[in-house]
Amino acid sequence: MNIDLTFEDLKLSKETLKAIHDMGFENPTSVQSAVIPKLLEKKDIIVQSQTGPGKTAAFGIPIAEIVQHGNRGVQALVITPTRELAMQVTVEMAKICKYKKLKELSLYGGMDIERQLRTLKSQVHIVVGTPGRILDHIRRGTLDLSHVKMVVLDEADEMLDLGFIENVEDILSETPKDRQTMLFSATVPERIKRLASRFLNEAELVAITPQEMTVKLIEQYYFEIKETLKFDSFCRIIDAEKMGPSIVFCRTKKNVDELTDGLRALGYSVEGIHGDMSQAIRMKTLNKFKNGRTDFLIATDVAARGLDIEGITHVINYDIPEDPESYVHRIGRTGRAGKEGIAYTLMNAREYDRLKFIEKFTKSKIKRKDVPTLRDIKEQKSEKFKTIIIESLKSDNLTQYKEQVIDLTEEYDVMSIAAAAFKYISDGEAKKFTNLADDLNASAYGRDRGDRGDRYDRGDRGDRGDRGERGRSKFGGDRPEGGEEGMVRLFLNIGKNDRIRPGDIVGAIAGESGLPGKVIGMIDIFKDFTYVDVSAEHVEKVLNAMKRNTIKGKRISIEKAKDKEKKKKA
User: Fold this and answer.
1) Which of 224, 190, 481, 458 is nearest to 345 (CA)?
2) Of the candidates 367, 125, 373, 427, which has an alpha carbon nearest to the alpha carbon of residue 236?
3) C-alpha torsion sign, points 237, 238, 240, 243
4) Lower CB count within 10 Å: N or C terminus of the chain?
5) Please, are residues 496 and 469 in contact by the beta-carbon 8 Å criterion?
């Protein structure tokens, strides 16, 4: 397989390429790279592969290219063993074919047959269905397969196990002899070989190395968590673990947005990616992650398809995937090139059966792990502090601090002084984590404050007891340029009408400037504009980094609030 192959290299139509990009595909997966070129050459093939990422697109893309909108009759037939797979394939085909204006139809038991009959009377280009229901329509005379150009037998060994092979043979007998046929099967037993020799024309065998082999290089764990404690537990996990670049998978685009905002609000370096984003924004986000400017990439399955990024240490299933194939695809982002990786899955008690099914499919054990306690986190941070201090001891820039220690040694011993410093830092970090989590729940998820705007206090500066009164005088009065001591207020021409949330502001500033989230203070979001406090020490760097930049696709202008007020008065 050519790992550098792109979809553009396949010489696909502009309509199909646009659909592929909309779906978030970056590069072909292994099965797509091996299969699509052969199918576009109109060869018959047998694909021996475990059900894996991108299989439907492997035959769906050639179907979209070969089937013609203007031709009458059903031109492509996909036979699946189950109604669930038929529905899944139909949805995927609709996405691939949407710009070619092809019409798909599912045929399976349990679906209203009258509706199927009405649809079949109209122009249908692609039929996806189970053997029994397809054969039923053929016998009724309501499904004509005389114009079929392509037939796909999906999961042929499963159809054999379910006793459908004779039905499949009857269906194939109703299709033209010069059709193109492709057969996908995890195994190729003798009965499947006989089927292929009878109905496929000089078929070529394409064997895909099972993805589950990569699972052996990955340590797999799960955390059983109550849904109401999921976000807090997740933060504890990533705080307690030594992680390099990591990908976090969510089931929906909404979950990606919410988790990204939540983590940004707590100062984590994260970026989100999903299919609703433009190709340009997705590429910019991926480049940030690849270049080490982001620690965590939050993604949906669709957006992460085709990703091949070196050095991923952890994959975290924030939402357990719906099927084992997605699980294999997800965790395959780590443990690459012979290196080991770690996969974590967050689940609740009701999802235990799904976890066991994944274990059976991957032939691997997923071990239970407990959510770290605050004590675990403090111990981890203490180890980190030790490393930082050892590095500091090696530097030559300690003179002023040594003088302070000497002053303290007049009353305390050196061991007590060092221990007190450790305690102060450790306690402060733990308190900050708790306060930030509380503040996130109270503020970041959208308490609407009306025309006064949505105020957001990052909570990094200790006691916040006077926040309310201070907020009224600062944001409600006539001096919007005033910030807390050591902070400078900035004005951005973007607000609630642009669906901006605090996490978007924090993520954009931290991501573009390379500064930690803690340099950002109070954020006040109004309908059409936003005020954000930034550390005076770093304000020029923020202004330069954000100049001519965008947030959520909108080009922004940013300036000091006091300069904005002067312009108004002038």
Assistant:
1) 224
2) 373
3) positive
4) C
5) no
Q: Let me know: does 47 contact 206? Beta carbons within 8 Å.
A: yes
Question: What letter does residue 218 receive in the DSSP assignment?
Answer: E
Distance CA 89, CA 55 (A): 10
What does the block give as tokens for 42?
């109109």
Q: Which residues have CB under 8 Å from 487's CB, separation 6+?
A: 521, 522, 533, 534, 535, 536
41: exposed, middle or buried (Cβ count in 10 Å: 0-12, 13-18, 19+): exposed
Q: What is the pLDDT of residues 238-279, one digit of tens each?
A: 988 888 899 999 988 888 988 998 898 888 889 998 877 776
Phi (first) and psi of residue 72, to 5 degrees: -85, 155
- Could you give the CA distance from residue 393 to residue 400 in angstroms, rounded to a whole number? 13
* Phi, psi angle pair for 528, to nearest 5°: -115, 0
> Measuring CA to CA, how many Å separate 497 from each of 454, 526, 528?
12, 8, 6
pLDDT in tens, 515-530: 776 778 888 888 889 9
The residues, any chain, with a CB within 8 Å of residue 540's CB and separated by 6 or more, are none
Sole residue written with tokens 């904005």 = 564
Domains and CATH numbers, the chain: 8-207 (3.40.50.300), 212-372 (3.40.50.300), 375-441 (no CATH), 446-569 (3.30.70.330)
How does pLDDT run across 382-410, given as a tens digit for each residue? 777 777 778 777 766 777 778 888 888 88
CA distance 47 to 157: 12
Compute CA distances 447 → 227, 476, 503, whole Å: 21, 17, 14
Decide: pTM greater than 0.70. Answer: no
Q: Residue 53 and residue 246: Cα distance in Å, rounded?
A: 20
Residues 6+ apart with CB under 8 A from 503: 260, 261, 262, 263, 264, 265, 444
- Residue 28 CA to residue 57 CA, distance in Å, equals 9
Structure token pair of residue 508: 């954009």
Q: Which two tokens stand for residue 497?
A: 């009408």
The owner of tokens 């796909």 is 152
Report the C-alpha gap between 408 and 417 in whole angstroms. 7
CB atoms within 10 A of CB 340: 12
Radius of gyration of the chain (CA): 29
- Banded pLDDT at 4 (limits 50, 70, 90): low
- Please give the helix or strand (H or E) that residue 376 lies within, else none: helix 374-393
Strand partners, 207: 48
The neighbour count for residue 216, using CB atoms within 10 Å, is 11
How many whole angstroms separate alpha carbon 312 and alpha carbon 332? 10
Q: Give dist(CA 557, CA 548) in Å, integer.
A: 7
Is residue 561 within 8 Å of residue 548, measured between CB atoms?
no
Helices 165-172 and 190-199, packing angle to 10 deg:
10
Return the exposure string of 224-254: e unless at least 16 CB atoms fall within 10 Å of the residue's CB, then b.
bbeeeebbbbbbbbbbbbebebbbbbbbebe
